[in-house]
């Protein structure tokens, strides 16, 4: 993946792992070069195609970044959407976009993942029988 180097990919993978240590929620990052049309429609397609709704508590969160045309979406499943305050996803996006403007893509993604993990921890604390329901690998379109 040429958008992020190996160190940046590891940084983001570590952020996902850390975010999920304290919650039963799941965070998935999906990267694509270009997104024709609406980024949220694309995110919903990815969410469904990758079956990210298949978490026991419906608390998966998908971050989609279309890096060549600068589009970003954060999509939470119904379990997490029902409990986060209005505007939370927009706040996460705004924070990441502010960092993107400084060309700090890996830092921005890691910080956004951290913000999401903190919110998941509040509403979906870690359970002793928790299993990692979704891969921590960065997903991407070729």
UniProtKB/TrEMBL annotation:
<protein>
    <recommendedName>
        <fullName>TPM domain-containing protein</fullName>
    </recommendedName>
</protein>
<feature type="domain" description="TPM">
    <location>
        <begin position="3"/>
        <end position="118"/>
    </location>
</feature>
<dbReference type="Pfam" id="PF04536">
    <property type="entry name" value="TPM_phosphatase"/>
</dbReference>
<dbReference type="InterPro" id="IPR007621">
    <property type="entry name" value="TPM_dom"/>
</dbReference>
